[in-house]
Amino acid sequence: MTNTATTSNGKLTFLRVAALLAAIGSIISPLLATGPLSGTGPLNALHGMVGNMNFVFAILAGVGGVLWGRASGNKGLMFHALSLPVLAVIQIALGEMHLTMVHIVLGFAYLLAAVALFTLALRKPGTAA
Question: Of 127, 31, 48, 117, whose CA–CA distance to 82 is shortest?
Fold first, then answer.
């Protein structure tokens, strides 16, 4: 027999960890953007790798949001979590197209969304309603 509260708490923990990783990645990425902005150096490749890792973390956060949303009925947090992979895909595309200013602006929007998702997930109670 599975305890619903324990299962839901595990889903929330998964969401929190994924959101934390996405938030950390989104904070590190602009710090590494000095390489791409200057056009030289090893930071250019590192910025891209962190961006791709952010995409993976965003997918994990989206999955965590869906799992928690189904367990708790909290659709707002679920859709917030699902917005991260969408923003990450657009970010990668903008970076590959070298649309720097739009990439930077959307990057800060992604940073705010990732940090907000983590803080909102922390405020949720440990069990589903």
Answer: 117
